[in-house]
Write a structure and sequence with these properties.
Blueprint: E1 3-6, H1 17-32, E2 35-39, E3 53-55, H2 68-71, E4 78-80, E5 94-98, H3 103-106, H4 116-125, H5 130-136, E6 141-144, H6 147-155, E7 163-165, E8 187-190, H7 200-207, E9 214-217, H8 223-232, E10 238-240, H9 246-254, E11 258-261, H10 270-277, E12 282-285, H11 288-294, E13 299-301, H12 306-314, H13 321-333, H14 338-353, H15 355-365
Parallel strand pairs: 1-2, 1-4, 2-3, 4-5, 5-6, 6-7, 8-9, 8-11, 9-10, 11-12, 12-13
Helix pairs in contact: 1-14, 7-12, 10-13, 14-15
Length: 366
């Protein structure tokens, strides 16, 4: 089976969720089956494993609807894309697309790093359901990263194609000495963007009620956002890392009291898995996806409720509570691995790849 994986969504500066999903899954897929990566910028190779690759036009190019004409030259049996927007006009191969979440139907502000014309199309696209259905039904199969997202896809009847959950996971960012001892101080870590649905304002207001705690905001932040959050709660102790390296992030997270997140919606939540794998408890908003990931290990608070968030963080101060949550977190995190996700995805790709794929898959199973 000739397998091609669309890696054009891998960022050249730092991973976001889709970029990390791509890099994680392609490395494990390659351990199980030969593949070729599609890139659109040579700099993407720095964030990808050393595998065969081909370069084609970018996913935000006006040529995207016809990118299949370029891909056909590779004569793949099946192509996997970590997004649902890969062009398919003129394809003669199997296609598996990914829909991570439905966040932008409720929160229509597009990422700021997209070209202006793409941002306009983004807003228009998320005003109605039929464009999503049209995109997904072009594929032979669809995957998503969580049961929560799968439930929403089914609820809104977004595809007639087979739907499979291929869970997100997290990279190894450290090897903690377990069991963990509660760290001194009250360091809280937030890893994520500053888009409105992320609820960072709720975290800032919560920390303003906890004078013994400080909130470390790890992602890149604009001067405007920094000033706005600082003015919002001058008494809150905020530490802006403005884009931490993986090493810095691991160091700060491994010594933290908790990872905190106040999102109103998510498709997954890689930072939760990263924290739990290190034995760092997570205190998060009470939304379905965080229940799916955090289970009984996480501590929850109501969405948009800064008072409840402060109480949830403070609850870790109860005797033995931090240690109990830490141990439970490590156990829960073991459920999420790129290897397990790659195995499940390969089953889908083999089925779509047809006779050649099933024969190769049968040999691999022996």
């Amino acid at each position: 089976m000739r397998l091609v994986v669309d890696c054009r969504y891998v960022r050249i500066d730092h991973h976001d969720g889709i970029s990390r999903f791509t890099a994680g899954i392609v490395a494990e897929l390659a351990e199980r089956h030969p593949l070729t990566m599609l890139i659109s910028d040579h700099r993407q190779l720095d964030k990808l494993p050393a595998l065969p690759w081909e370069i084609v036009s970018g996913p935000t190019s006006v040529r995207e609807p016809w990118v299949a004409r370029q891909v056909r030259k590779l004569r793949p049996d099946v192509v996997f894309s970590p997004m649902q927007t890969m062009g398919s006009w003129g394809r003669d191969y199997g296609l598996v697309l990914t829909l991570h979440d439905l966040i932008y139907y409720e929160n229509r502000t597009p990422p700021r790093d997209l070209p202006a014309f793409v941002r306009v199309l983004w807003r228009l696209y998320h005003l109605m359901w039929w464009p999503q259905r049209m995109l997904l039904n072009r594929a032979d199969a669809v995957v998503t990263v969580s049961e929560t997202s799968a439930g929403l896809i089914r609820k809104h009847r977004l595809t007639k194609r087979p739907l499979t959950v291929v869970q997100n996971a997290a990279d190894e960012i450290g090897t903690p000495r377990l069991p963990r001892a509660r760290p001194e101080g009250g360091r809280l870590v937030y890893m994520g963007s500053f888009m409105s649905y992320k609820g960072v304002e709720t975290l800032v207001r919560a920390v303003s009620q906890l004078p013994d705690h400080e909130l470390h905001l790890m992602s890149r932040v604009s001067d405007e956002q920094r000033q706005r959050l600082t003015r919002m709660a001058p008494e809150a102790r905020l530490v802006f890392h403005d884009g931490a390296t993986d090493e810095e992030y691991a160091r700060v997270l491994s010594g933290a009291t908790a990872l905190v997140t106040a999102s109103k919606a998510e498709g997954f939540g890689i930072p939760l898995v990263e924290a739990m794998r290190l034995g760092t408890p997570v205190v998060v908003s009470d939304i379905p996806i965080f229940r799916e990931i955090g289970g009984e290990a996480a501590t929850y608070f109501a969405v948009d409720d800064a008072d409840a968030a402060a109480r949830a963080i403070a609850s870790l101060d109860a005797p033995g509570e931090w240690e109990r949550r830490s141990e439970a977190s490590v156990d829960v995190a073991r459920r999420f691995t790129w290897g397990a996700s790659a195995e499940r995805l390969l089953d889908v790709l083999v089925e779509v790849g047809g006779t050649n794929g099933r024969a190769a898959h049968s040999r691999r199973r022996r």
